[in-house]
Design brief:
single chain, alpha+beta
Length: 98
Amino acid sequence: MPANDPTTGSAPRFPLGQTVMTRAAELTLDPEDMRRAIARHHAGDWGDVCPDDQAANEAALEHGDRLFSIYHSRTGVKFYVITEHDRSITTVLLPEDY
């Protein structure tokens, strides 16, 4: 069983694959905010998504679909963390990058 993440206290629920960020996210977001969001996403804490998207993420864990989370930085900037259906890549991006 995977070790618990010290940030979330939870075990990872799926593979992240390669973790990348868009240029806009890199220039806008604090690396610590991104790291914490990725850890939450990895643990299945989908952040600020609506209940329907939470349910879709839970189903995606079972069926191998894309996983989508929404977070806010400490300065209030909204950003997304998306893991592709094949779990090959996880991307941090701003809404305007989507």
